[in-house]
Each structure stands twice: as C-alpha cells, then as structure tokens.
Amino acid sequence: MSGRSILITGGAGFIGSHVVRRFVRTYPQYRIVNLDLLTYAGNLENLRDIEDAPNYTFIKADICDAEAVAKVFQEFAVDSVIHLAAESHVDRSITDPLAFVRTNVFGTVTLLNAAREAWAGAFEGKRFYHVSTDEVYGSLHDDGFFTEETPYDPQSPYSASKAASDHFVRAYGNTYGLPFVLSNCSNNYGSHHFPEKLIPLMINNIRQNKPLPVYGQGANVRDWLWVEDHAAAIDTIFHRGVNGETYNIGGHNEWKNIDLVKLLCAVMDRKLGRAEGTSEQLITYVKDRAGHDLRYAIDASKIERELGWRPSITFEEGLERTVDWYLANTEWLDHVTSGAYRDYYENQYTAR
Ligand code: NAD
Ligand code: TYD
Prior knowledge:
Elements: E1 5-9, H1 14-26, E2 31-36, E3 56-60, H2 66-75, E4 80-83, H3 90-95, H4 97-119, E5 127-133, H5 157-176, E6 180-185, E7 187-189, H6 198-207, E8 212-215, E9 221-226, H7 227-240, E10 246-249, E11 254-256, H8 257-272, E12 283-286, H9 301-307, H10 315-328, H11 330-338, H12 343-350
The structure holds nicotinamide-adenine-dinucleotide and thymidine-5'-diphosphate.
C-alpha cells in the first residue's frame, strides 16, 4: 500500500483529528487530504502540530457538495476514503433531525457517488472505509453485547441517520461492487473532544465550579474507549480489514453515567488540589433525554481475533491522560466555548 492518496472526511473533528494525525505521522509516503466543512464541531486548532506536514492538505468543503467532492477525487487522485464527517451529537439530532439526514445520509451518498464515478469500476486497490457507531444497534438492557450480527434497531434521529448511511455503504458494495469496510465503535473519550459530550462537558464544568447536569437518574450505561485506541483500530482495519466486512470496536469498559461522573469528580479534585468530595456536590440531576438509550456494550472479539487489535490502555490511565490534557489546554477549551476557534481558519488559511 505504498503511496496511497487518502481522503479523510471530518478530519477537523474529535476522532477525525486523531486519525489524521496518526496517518500523517505514521505514513509519510501517503498523501492525506482532510476534507471538512468546519461546522461548529470542526476545529483546525486540533491539527496545529501537523498542519505544515508535506504529506497533508486541508480542504474546506461540504461532503454534500458533489462538485467540490468530485474535484478533490480528481485533483488528488484519491484511491481511498476514510469517512468520518457527520453530525454526531444525539441531543442536537433531537432538536434538528434534518441536519442529520443531510450530512449523515445525503453527504455519505454523495461521497459514495464520487468514489464510484472517480474509480469507474476499476476497484482494484481502492477502499471506502465508513466509520460508524454502535448506536445503530439500538439499546441493550442489563445483559448481552452488540455483535456484528446484531440487527439494526436505531432509536434516535442520530443513530437512525448513521444506520441509513451504513445501509447505503453496504448497498453500494452489493450493487456496484464498491470495495468497502465498515466499523461500529462505542463511545470515545480523550483530548480535543468538543465539550457538548459527557466527559469533556463534565471536566469543563468541574473546572469552573458549574453544575454537572446528569440526565435522569444517571443509570444509563456507556462503553468507553480511548480515542487514540479507536484511531489505532481504524488504522488496522484500513490496512488489514477484509473488503465487505464489518468490525465492532469497543473498550470492554462499561460505566453507569453517575459512577463515571463521580470518578471524574474524584480525579479532578485530586488534580486541582480540592478536598475529597468537593466537586461531587456540583452534580445536578436534570430532565432525561427523550428516548434515552439505556445501555451500549460492544463485543469486540472479531477485531481482536481476526486483526489482533485491542485497547492499549486502561480507562483509569486514559482518564488521567484526558484530564491532564484538558487542564494543560485550558486555552483550547476557552476558544471552543467562546467560539474563538472559528477564527483560526481565517487567520491560518486566508492570510497565507
Ligand atoms: P465530531 O462532531 O467531533 O466531528 C465531525 C466533523 O465532521 C467536524 O469536523 C465537522 O466539521 C465535520 N462535518 C460535519 N458536517 C460536515 C459536512 N457536511 N461536510 C464536511 N464535514 C462535515 O464527530 P466525532 O465524534 O469525531 O465522530 C466522527 C465520526 O465517528 C462520526 O461519523 C461519528 O458518527 C462516529 N463515531 C463517533 C463516536 C464518538 O464517541 N464520538 C463513536 C463511534 C462513532
Ligand atoms: P454523550 O456524550 O452525548 O454520548 P451518547 O449519547 O452518544 O452516548 O452522552 C453520554 C451519556 O451521558 C448519555 O447517556 C447521555 C449522558 N449525558 C448526561 O447525563 N449529561 C450530559 O450533559 C450529557 C451531554 C450526556
């Protein structure tokens, strides 16, 4: 696979930025083209450390814009896609479902069309990698795990739109022979995570002594994976995954929300030199999310068995690193919460 030209979509977001950084650094022989619209969730400050790398190019464009996408395929002779661009926040999907249909469904199909046209049936050596979520499988009760065979049963507008995009990818494989791989991952955490999601929101609020809003009773369970381990899994699947296959990725790491928030409070109290139990007092139970999925838990045995991937660090270690990163990068958090990060593109790219 020397000299690949890889289009990574959504590379300015949370997971995408980790994937871009990993590929740019690990594979200097690859050209990495990061196509991102820079919505509220896209932040080029996430990629400051690699933005001048000779094998990296950033393109500001919308995956729904067929012309712009076709141009990128042509200009960079794209032979592989790692597709992460999406609307990704469940709460936003409840208030604005159409935004999710547009980007996650229409955008994915636009990208599939571009790949199909650019590769024109000459599929040898080509690969379309679609990055998806475990939320497509719906909600578990107390027992069991999501396997690759679990029937789709999405429960939120977000997961319904991701499920639709997964179906389109498989349909393009079946109908046109497009070579694809797909992965469904559990909840990620780590650095550069937008503070609308549980873990960075809690870290940010604890830091500022603000209330910690726990939905419902805090009894919902999520399976947390360190984002760099997800990026490593994507690297593994991209290089060694079998065409047409799906791989579940997870951390074997289930936490009830309330227990996780309490753990974060304890870690933050220690790091900030606060007395034990101080931050827990900020916990505030708030109205539950509509249609709130009770439990997600991934059976990741297929990727472990077939591709030899497994998480590299424990949750305790990952949380320590994550909290340390946020405390060392309060400027990043302040830019994100104030909106100042949006100026970065103008300053960085138009002033050149
Ligand atoms: P994110 O919201 O942090 O980033 C999404 C990125 O996509 C942003 O940079 C945004 O600017 C870009 N984008 C949005 N709409 C676009 C458009 N129309 N055209 C081009 N770019 C656009 O998301 P994330 O958490 O990094 O998730 C990335 C992918 O991984 C998504 O497909 C998501 O469904 C999937 N996923 C996320 C998790 C998780 O825990 N965050 C878990 C499993 C799977
Ligand atoms: P989130 O990070 O939004 O991920 P997802 O909904 O995709 O799993 O939420 C993780 C869990 O935390 C979920 O059960 C909802 C809950 N939650 C809260 O209790 N309070 C919050 O402020 C947020 C954002 C989430």
